């Protein structure tokens, strides 16, 4: 019997969601005249629930590193028909349907899902090889506990959340947040930025707006000299929390838009470039992304329905539609700012939804697969 190989590139929130969803809802419904198999190519054996990472960095006694790195093997132990290749895709040849992997293997695909997410300047936010990830987190815990000054670059949600967590958990340390724009959280309303500024201020965070880091140099004294235009300061710990870029450098350039995102139809998540028949993309690497987990939550059903239809199942196309545009930014453990469809909601809702536990229950739900039942 011939085998149809579905390859998923990237084993974190998007890629694993697609794998669970296909195994639960699509593969069992396909005709038994063919064999269907899924291969996930990803360097990490553990998933990375990034949402809780800012608290883990500042307060590992509240949420431990292991809680945000759940085992992928355990999450998929109840299925058959899926295997993992632990390496990075380095090149794709669409004419032969072949992927070269960093560990020297090459893997053939009949259907391909690209879910390789974003790459950040700091590996604290990247899903890298497991040992390196655990080592990095234990190093940052030690560095922060010894430091007197901590400087964080990046005025988006990640930088704001991290600065707040560090300041709340280490009130005697000097925490500085450099933002590259006129206010923190520039993607949110001015009112939300004002509230965020106020809340960060009450935790003791020094905010310096319109400061983009231009250089960072280790000094002989073990500190890092940070330069941002006219600003120059030595800091004990520097953390880059500026935004990521799509992890797409290994893909054919004809599959990417001018900003490096994989071009997809934003309703079906099918690839729209040349030789992209049976190629799909989900999450932060794809051109429809809003940079949030909602892209995956609302996108997985659309992508799975595209694959089901393309494999011959008579199903109605489910279209991706972002349920509502919003952002919840936790500022310490007591609340934060919440923009929903252009409205600012009270800090209490942020506490309820996020700040009290940084949604850590979601790690098990998303990675374990219950979310996709
Ligand atoms: C600190 C932080 C906090 C966040 N908080 C929130 C939040 O509160 N709410 C929210 O909605 N969103 C939040 N986000 C965004 C959210 O985490 C992302 O939108 C989500 O992780 C995107 O999932 P993904 O699967 O597309 O990409 P990723 O999670 O980036 O996963 C990509 C996967 O691909 C793998 N990979 C990379 N290159 C290759 C390659 N060449 N070959 C094979 N595999 C590869 C990686 O190792 C990884 O496993 C946060 C992000 C960060 C960094």
Automatic annotation (TrEMBL):
Record GO cellular component, one term: cytoplasm
Pfam families xref list: Pyr_redox_2
Residue span(s) of domain FAD/NAD(P)-binding: 5-290
GO molecular function (one): flavin adenine dinucleotide binding
InterPro entries: FAD/NAD-bd_sf, FAD/NAD-binding_dom
Coiled-coil stretches noted in the UniProt entry, renumbered to this chain: none
Domain of life assignment: Eukaryota
PANTHER family: APOPTOSIS-INDUCING FACTOR 1 (PTHR43735), NAD(P)H DEHYDROGENASE 3 (PTHR43735:SF25)
Protein name: FAD/NAD(P)-binding domain-containing protein
Organism name: Gomphillus americanus
Phylogenetic placement of the source organism: Eukaryota, Fungi, Dikarya, Ascomycota, Pezizomycotina
């Amino acid at each position: 019997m011939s085998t149809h190989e579905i390859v998923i590139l990237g084993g974190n929130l998007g890629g694993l969601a697609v794998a669970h969803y296909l195994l639960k809802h699509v593969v069992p419904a396909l005709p038994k005249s063919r064999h269907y198999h899924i291969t996930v190519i990803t360097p990490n054996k553990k998933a990375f629930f990034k949402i809780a990472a800012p608290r883990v960095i500042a307060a590992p006694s509240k949420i431990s590193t292991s809680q945000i790195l759940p085992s992928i093997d355990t999450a998929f132990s109840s299925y058959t028909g899926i295997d993992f290749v632990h390496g990075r895709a380095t090149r794709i040849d669409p004419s032969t349907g072949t992927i070269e992997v960093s560990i020297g293997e090459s893997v053939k695909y009949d259907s391909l899902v690209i879910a390789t997410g974003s790459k950040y300047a700091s590996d604290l936010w990247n899903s890298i090889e497991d040992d390196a990830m655990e080592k990095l987190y234990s190093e940052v815990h030690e560095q922060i506990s010894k430091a007197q000054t901590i400087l964080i670059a990046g005025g988006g949600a990640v930088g704001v959340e991290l600065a707040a967590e560090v300041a709340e958990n280490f009130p005697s340390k000097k925490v500085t947040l450099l933002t590259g724009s006129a206010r923190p959280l520039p993607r949110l309303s001015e009112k939300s930025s004002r509230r965020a500024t106020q809340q960060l201020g009450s935790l003791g965070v020094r905010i310096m707006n319109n400061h983009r880091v231009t250089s960072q140099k280790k000094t002989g004294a073990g500190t890092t000299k940070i330069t941002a235009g006219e600003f120059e300061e030595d800091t004990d710990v520097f953390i880059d929390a500026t935004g990521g870029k799509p992890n797409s450098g290994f893909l054919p350039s004809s599959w990417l838009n001018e900003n490096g995102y994989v071009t997809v139809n934003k309703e079906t998540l099918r690839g729209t470039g040349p030789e992209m028949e049976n190629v799909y993309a989900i999450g932060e690497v794809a051109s429809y992304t809003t940079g949030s987990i909602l892209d995956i939550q609302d996108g997985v059903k659309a992508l799975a329905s595209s694959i089901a239809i393309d494999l011959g199942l008579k199903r109605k196309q489910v279209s991706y539609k972002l349920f509502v545009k919003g952002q919840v930014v936790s500022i310490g453990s007591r609340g934060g700012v919440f923009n929903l469809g252009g409205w600012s909601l009270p800090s209490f809702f942020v506490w309820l939804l996020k700040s009290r536990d940084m949604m850590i229950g979601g790690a098990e739900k998303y990675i374990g697969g219950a979310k996709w039942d």
